[in-house]
Amino acid sequence: MDNHFTVTIHDDNGVKQFNVHKFIKKAFLYAALFLFTIILIAAGTILYLNANVDTLQNKKNELASAYKKMLYQNKELQKRMSDTTDALSTKEKELDELSDSLSQIETLIGLKPIADESLQDRINMTMLSSSHRATLLELIPNGSPIVYHGITSKFGYRIHPTLHKKEFHRGDDLKAKLNTPVHATADGIVEWAGLHKRSGFGNLVILTHVFGFKTLFGHLNKVVVKSGQFVRKGQLIAYSGNSGLSNGPHLHYEVRFLQRALNPFYFIKWTQKNYDEIFKKEKKVPWQSLITATSLLKVTKQTQTRQLSQPELKSKAK
């Protein structure tokens, strides 16, 4: 078997022939194939890497754009947060000022804030509408039961004019001529109407009002209401006199809360115009609880205490 082959080379010098072993031929062929394969792999790798580089570049551009957008949004967010912080600071300052003002109002009307009570609840407690005020002034004794001409004997300790000994005077003695009309100072029910010997008030009318209030009208000449009768604010209930332990015609007037005697003068002078004054002066009444209890009540029309005309007086007397 011939394992050689001849390679003939023609040039200017003539023809030259070389005998080459077939193994070398195969080696050249394999080397050529290997080199070609390497070239193909390199070319494919280069193309693949180029494609990946383009993809990475696109992703890099997207990330850069997203980062730039995020920086802008973050800047906007910081600006909003700064604006919100400033607004909250302003609101907090306003709330502090409002709370201080509200505390002054609460002090003025005798209200004490309840622990953990919200600012809105405190505001609701103090924002009494005119209808709410009218309701309180309809149901709680206020104003003078007679045409006011002054007081002859004030609330407090005194020397009794007939017993001549020191005692606590639980009401005010209002100046009044005989048979001066006496009116109810709030809506209520007649608890007592007639002679009351034990108290020394002679003819006496006791009215029971809502929320624990009572009014007493003593030394009367004539009573025109009956026990158990409902009366309205301003309604005629009696005529002043000199009955019982009295040294002259006048009206003994008392205001009580849960059987405790209160200074009637504060209630006689209590009107819409000086509505808040009684909360500062009369401390025996828990006004805050009372206002809470009446916050949902409403009267359609406030009754004004008035003095009846002579024809009306004659009609009532019949």
Written description of the protein model:
- By secondary structure, this protein is an alpha+beta fold.
- The protein folds into two domains: 1-105; 130-297, Glucose Permease (Domain IIA) (Distorted Sandwich), CATH 2.70.70.10.
- The chain is 41% helix and 25% strand.
- It contains seven helices and 14 strands.
- It has helices at residues 22-108, 119-126, 130-139, 264-268, 277-281, 287-294, 310-317; strands spanning 4-11, 14-21, 151-153, 156-159, 166-169, 172-175, 181-183, 188-196, 202-208, 213-223, 230-231, 236-240, 250-257, 260-262.
- Strands 3, 6, 7, 8, 9, 10, 11, 12, 13 and 14 form a ten-stranded antiparallel sheet that branches. A two-stranded antiparallel ribbon has the order 1-2. Strands 4-5 form a two-stranded antiparallel sheet.
- The longest helix has 87 residues, at 22-108.
- It is rod-shaped and about 175 Å long.
- Mean pLDDT is 82; it is low at 305-318.
Low-confidence stretches: 305-318
User: Which fold name is given in CATH as the topology of the largest domain?
Assistant: Glucose Permease (Domain IIA)
Number of domains in the coordinates?
A: 2
Beta-strand share of residues:
15-25%
The coarse overall form would be rod-shaped
Q: What is the H/E order?
A: EEHHHEEEEEEEEEEEEHHHH
End-to-end Cα distance: 166 Å
Radius of gyration: 53 Å
Number of strands: 14
Largest sheet: 10 strands, antiparallel
Structural class: alpha+beta
Named CATH architecture of the largest domain:
Distorted Sandwich
Count helical runs. 7
